[in-house]
Amino acid sequence: MEPLKNMNLLRDMLLSFCPEAFRREHRPYSSSSLIAAATVLGLLQLIVCALLLVQRYKHFVVARAHLWATQMNGHPEWVQSGGVAIVTLEFFLYPLSLLLLYLGLEGFLRFAAGITASEVVPSLPVVCAFKVVESARKRQETKQRLALPPDQVEMLPDGRVRIAAAQPKPAWNASITIGLDDTWYEIEREMRASGPRSWIYVLRPSPTGKIFRRVERYERPPEPRSSEKAQTKSQSDGPSPSAPVENSN
C-alpha cells in the first residue's frame, strides 16, 4: 500500500508542473495533494534557483574584480560603484543567469498561488514543451488527413445520400442532423466496406418539424480531376468489394 501511495504522490508532483488541459485528462490522485505538491515544489524551486543565482553572481563578480583590479585602483568610490552596476548588468546578459532568475520568480509565483489562492500554476517551460508536442501532432494528423482520398458523395434516387469516407466520423450518430447543400439529413445507417473508402454513411432527409439537437454543416468535397475520375471508374469496373457489414446506431 505504501509504494502505491508514494507513486500517487510522485504522479501529483509531476502533474503540478503540467498545464491544466493535461491535468483534466489525467486526473491527480487528490486535489489537496496536487496543491500541496505545487506549493512545496514552488518553494524549493525558488530556494534552489536563488542559491544558484547568488553563487554564480559571487563567482562572476570576483572574476571581474580580479580582471579590473588594476584599472579600478585609485578611482573614486562612485566609479567603483558604477563598475559594480555594469558587472551586474553584464551578469544578467548571460542566458543561464536569466533562466535562473526566471525559474526563481516562477517558483515564487507557484508558491504564492498555492499558499494564498490554493491554485496550481504550471511551469512555463513544461507548458511550452506540451505546445510544441501538440503542434507537431496536429501537423502530422493534418498531413495524414490530406493524404487520404476525399469523401465520395452519391445522391440516391429516393432522396437519400450515400457518403463513402476514408476515415470514420465519430460525431455522426442518431442524434446529429447534417446539413448538405440546402437539405437537412439524419443518419440512417453506417456500414463498412473494403477499399480506401471503407466507412459508408447513408443519410435520409430529416422529417419536417424535427427538433435539431446537434447540427453539423457538411461541405461537399471538390470534384476530382479527370485523371482521378478515370482511376475511380477503373476501380469501380474491377471486382466487386465484399458485401458491406451494417453497423446500426
Give the biggest beta sheet.
7 strands, mixed
Number of β-strand runs:
7
Helix content: 40-55%
Q: What is the radius of gyration computed over CA atoms, rounded to a whole number of angstroms?
A: 32 Å
Tell me the distance between the termini. 44 Å
Poorly predicted sequence stretches spanning 5 or more consecutive residues? 232-249
Tally of DSSP helical segments: 8
SSE run: HHHHHHHEEEEEEHE
Beta fraction? 15-25%
Mean pLDDT over all positions: 82
Query: Which structural class matches the secondary elements?
Result: alpha+beta
Shape: elongated
Describe this structure in words.
It is a single chain. The chain has 249 residues and is of the alpha+beta class. The protein is 54% helix and 15% strand. It contains 8 helices and 7 strands. It has helices at 2-15, 20-25, 31-67, 69-72, 77-91, 95-117, 124-147, 226-237; strands at residues 152-155, 161-165, 176-180, 183-192, 199-205, 214-217, 245-247. Strands 1, 2, 3, 4, 5, 6 and 7 form a 7-stranded mixed beta sheet that branches. α1 (2-15) packs across α3 and α3 (31-67) packs antiparallel against α6.
Please give a quick description of this structure.
The chain has helices spanning 2-15, 20-25, 31-67, 69-72, 77-91, 95-117, 124-147, 226-237, and strands spanning 152-155, 161-165, 176-180, 183-192, 199-205, 214-217, 245-247. The protein is α+β, with helices and mostly antiparallel strands and 249 residues long.
